């Protein structure tokens, strides 16, 4: 496979672009991947069907010329991230989604002996399925998604089939739950059973790019939570030790809950303003609410109208619905527009300020 990794760095902007030619059937595909350095890359293909090598080479060379004309420069070969085989075919696998834990519930949760805690990673939700020799990445919507070759290579080393749930951060997969192993469906079993089986599984083979997300037991949760806060981590997740893995999100509450140290929400971009700013909206039942504007930093591409994006914010104003001190985190192609609702918001009256 012919490939190149290009880098662009200017001020706070630090981007990566990969291009590759890969054989497929009787022809070749031209794949690309892009994003911030150190992040899990977005992927795509310039060829919908296999083409002759000469055509693929022309497309590949044109891509490289265009990027280098914009200031990208060749560098050390990065981890190749090929796109999935059938990105639009649903896998029939649905991941578990958690409701937030409210601030007033936190102390009670920390003292509950039945709940185990895990760090909430600031990455891309990813499930890894091994079926024979095939390794498939699955996003939070249940569709096939790109998976870095380093992660796929590690996953292939385990002799049995499996389905793991976790977060991808760069070229490392952080596994926090085990759904199946061999022919055994682990989802009806309690989290404690699933976790210990996953630990034993990962102890059985070498996998430098797959890491186990440790569980923190009740006697240590309060101290470790404060430690995570001091280190600027994303948050934590509390899971009842006997809770099964339940696909989808409960209407409210649940036996597994997330607690974020920073407020984040998903929004829909409605228009691009001047000076790298975009306007945001949310759904409120059948109504559309304005949620304010956010500035797009130089290391991100400006999203087009209709794109779902994620922002961090201090709080929202109840009267206007706008978010205060928003920080743009990036596009979220794995989140549906229908999920961008005002129910995500934490309003000023609910904060400690």
TrEMBL record:
One of its GO terms (biological process) is DNA repair. Pfam families: RNA_ligase, WGR. It is an enzyme of class 6 (ligase). Its EC number is 6.5.1.1. Keywords: DNA damage, DNA repair, DNA replication, Ligase. GO terms for molecular function: DNA ligase (ATP) activity. Residues 2-79 form the WGR domain. This is Bifunctional non-homologous end joining protein LigD.
